[in-house]
Amino acid sequence: MSSLIPAMRRAGLAVAFWHEVDTPKDRIRIELPSGVRDICAADAGLDASIQQLRDWKPDVLYVQGVSDAAAEAKLLDVAPAVFFLHTYSGTCISGSKTFSRPTSVPCDRTFGVACLLHYFPHGCGGNDPRTMWRLFGIQSERLRLFHRYAAILTHSDHMRDEMKKHGLCAHVVPFPCDASPAISHVISPAEPVSGFGRTEHPWRLLFAGRMEVLKGGHYLIEALPEVARAARRPVHLVLAGDGRDRQSWEAAAQRIQGGTPNLTIEFTGWVTPQHVTTLMRQVDLLVVPSLWPEPLGSVGPAAAQQGVPAAAYDSGGIPQWLTDGVSGQLAPADPPTPSGLARAIIRCLADPAHYAALRRGALEAGARFTMARHLPTVTEHLARVERR
Fold first, then answer.
1. Which end of the chain has less Cβ packing within 10 Å, N or C?
2. pLDDT digit string (tens) for 348-362?
3. Rounded mean pLDDT of 4-26?
4. What is the pTM of this model?
5. What element of type H or E holds 384?
6. How far is the C-alpha of 195 from the C-alpha of 80, rounded, in Å?
7. How remote is the C-alpha of 360 from its chain's centroid?
8. What is the spatial distance between Cα 272 and Cα 303, in angstroms, rounded to a whole number?
9. For residues 111, 292, 82 and 144, what is the CA-based torsion angle, rounded to 10 degrees?
10. Which residues are bridge partners to 205 per DSSP?
């Protein structure tokens, strides 16, 4: 929304921004351009904020990420609405769409009562049955709400198919991952990586994201000895981000680094999106070791726009931007393993000619994920709903 709302205003649309809280705990505040009506439920109260929205008389609502299902239901009484689907809301009890027992593998089940039977045996969530029932009720209500939307948009074929399994029709629109214009670097498809084929040139890897178990950073760290043996040169991994598993990842990294020659692992902590883009310009390869089926994995297109290929597990929406052998390499995901990921990394970097081709493929892939392509398709769907 931080980039979409200004783009809508530049396109001449009248926009109001209704939101539940003023400053989310897990992300930076969205700054609004001049002329955008700001309606905050936490400040005005839910019912008063809904009335303020009614008084503004919207033609159509564009809904994303409302945490309170009751609030969402009231929004849907205001005007025809389009929903943008980012997550497994309404299709998974825990929202992770992943079995964690006996090992982490993506789940392809259709959400329903039978999911309750899998919750504990397959480690779908926590160990409290009360939490299981509460979450099941919330996700069931979310799925019911989906049927009230005039249209559902999403960013990958995988998520479109997820909706289809649940009796809903979703439309795929290109997701916008435009780099900040202040630091964006236009790379020529023919631009070489200086000295890449020489043995003294290190393999520079980047992980960027939340440090949680389903993001797979521990699998990446465990894959590094195999990568280092194949590289026969220095290997340097930067892990940018933070999260509840950071301490355990740091302990594993210290152990692996101590027993692996020519390997260095660096943790930067949380960094701004602008800093992440700068890091992307300093590495050879992005690694997306997510164990869950990422709905898209937006860090991949962002890296591709900088000419950085990726290695990732073949699940969820990852293939939407990573074509195996063209813009990076995919590793098997059923089940995902450190060794499989290591082999994908090695395939990306072992042959300089192949790596140069992957860079060109990444740039071509990244060009699909821009606001210039996203906004017209979104506004087309909004206008179609408004005209009904």
1. C
2. 999 999 999 999 999
3. 89
4. 0.91
5. helix 371-387
6. 56
7. 22
8. 15
9. 20
10. 237, 285
Asked if the structure places residue 43 within a domain, the reply is no
Order of strands, sheet of 263-269, starting from the edge strand that comes earlier in the sequence: 263-269, 235-240, 203-208, 285-288, 310-313, 328-331
DSSP 310: E
Name the 3-class secondary structure at 37.
Answer: strand
Find out whether 307 and 330 touch, Cβ atoms under 8 Å. Answer: no
What is d(CA 163, CA 159) in angstroms, rounded to the nearest whole number?
A: 6
99 within 8 A of 118, measured Cβ to Cβ: yes
Q: How far apart are CA 279 and CA 160, in angstroms?
A: 32
Q: Which of 353, 205, 347 lies closest to 288 in space, CA to CA?
A: 205
Output b/e per residue, 239-252; b: 16+ Cβ within 10 A.
bbbbeebbeebeeb
90 is in which domain, residue-wise? Answer: 59-176+370-387
Does 16 reside within a domain?
no
The DSSP code for 314 is S
Kindly give the pairing relationship between strand 98-99 and strand 37-40. Answer: unpaired
Using one digit for the tens of pLDDT, what is the confidence trace for 16-70?
A: 999 998 876 666 678 889 999 999 999 999 999 999 999 999 999 999 989 999 9
Do 305 and 322 belong together in one domain? yes
Alpha-carbon separation of residue 204 from 238, 263, 285, 303 (angstroms):
8, 10, 7, 14
